[in-house]
Design a protein that fits this description.
Blueprint lengths: L2 E7 L2 E7 L8 E5 L16 H7 L3 E5 L16 H19 L6 E6 L1 H11 L6 E7 L7 H8 L11 H8 L8 H7 L8 H8 L1 H11 L5 E8 L7 H9 L7 E10 L8 H17 L7
Parallel strand pairs: 3-4, 3-5, 5-6, 6-7, 7-8
Antiparallel strand pairs: 1-2, 2-4
Helix pairs in contact: 2-3, 3-8, 4-7
Length: 289
């Protein structure tokens, strides 16, 4: 059963959704991308939370700062600032729900993936076992960069439905129209600062941040992702940034678009992510080893 959560962080809070899980499994924390709240991971028929619960995992899909019921960052939104707040929130979740579990695995999409890399590079005090990233790259097409820079400064913006369909979903054969409609319930405006950072500072920072990551990495880039330059070379290059990771499992996913979690292949994606979490937990050295 999915329930709402409210995690105090300093004078603010982080909200989200969670499911119950069996003892002994990793605690899974999911971070959504830009323009969606935590409900992104709970679209009917494509819910990571439902599948995780069925497989015995406690999954916490968090609203990033400024989304859902989570308080915004003080000052302008930034990936590093979001990582700092989420680090504290996950520390609280671990204290309250980590007993008997081997550690935490992050599953992240799009801008949430960039923030997950920032989080892992911080080397948090809670036991991070691995990060699973999708919907992220290191180079956006020129027309995306130009479009984001052409947006007037001001209030957070929401992509028009037609643009969201074209950029975030693959061809009709990869996704059902009803799912695209259902996913609208989790759509929210996104800060312009996030849009500019993902096409600006992020491509410059990713190699240095990734080199500081010392846990296993799973990386998936979709064939029809409209926000990134997509080819085998880009996947190999991105995976190669994680020079300190024990291992990196990277793939170019055919037959899906940016919002992989809502495509017909979503179940395959989520099963691979949960299997990755199991593998990360299994490879943790036992006490005394």
């Amino acid at each position: 059963m999915t329930t709402r959560i409210d995690v105090p962080v300093g004078r603010g809070r982080i909200t989200g959704l969670t499911t119950d899980g069996e003892a002994g499994t990793p605690l899974v924390v999911a971070l959504h991308g830009g323009g969606y709240h935590s409900g992104y991971f709970d679209v009917p028929g494509h819910s990571l939370l439902d599948l995780g619960a069925a497989a015995g995992f406690a999954v916490f899909a968090l609203d990033r700062p400024g989304y859902g019921g989570s308080d915004p960052l003080l000052g302008e939104a930034s990936f590093a600032g979001s990582a700092e707040v989420l680090d504290a929130a996950i520390d609280t979740l671990w204290t309250e729900h980590g007993r008997g579990r081997p550690g935490v695995v992050l599953i992240a999409h799009s801008i949430g993936s960039a923030i997950a890399v920032h989080l892992a590079a911080r080397h948090p005090r809670w036991p991070l076992l691995g990060i699973s990233l999708h919907g992220i790259g290191d180079r956006s097409p020129a027309h995306i960069v130009d479009a984001w820079h052409a947006i007037p400064a001001g209030a957070p913006m929401e992509l028009p439905a037609e643009q969201r369909r074209a950029l975030l979903y693959g061809p009709a054969g990869t996704v059902d129209a009803g799912v695209v409609e259902a996913a609208k319930a989790s759509v929210e405006p996104l800060p312009l600062a996030e849009m500019l950072e993902i096409v600006g500072e992020w491509p410059e920072d990713v190699a240095g941040l990734a080199a500081a990551v010392t846990v296993p990495v799973q990386y998936t880039l979709a064939e029809y992702d409209g926000l990134w330059v997509v080819d085998e070379n880009r996947v190999e290059t991105f995976a190669g940034y994680f020079t300190s990771a024990p291992w990196v499992d990277a793939r170019l996913q055919a037959g899906a678009g940016h919002n992989l979690d809502h495509h017909r292949l979503s179940r395959a994606l989520h099963l691979r992510q949960l299997a990755f979490a199991c593998e990360c937990a299994t490879r943790v050295p036992a006490a005394g080893d």
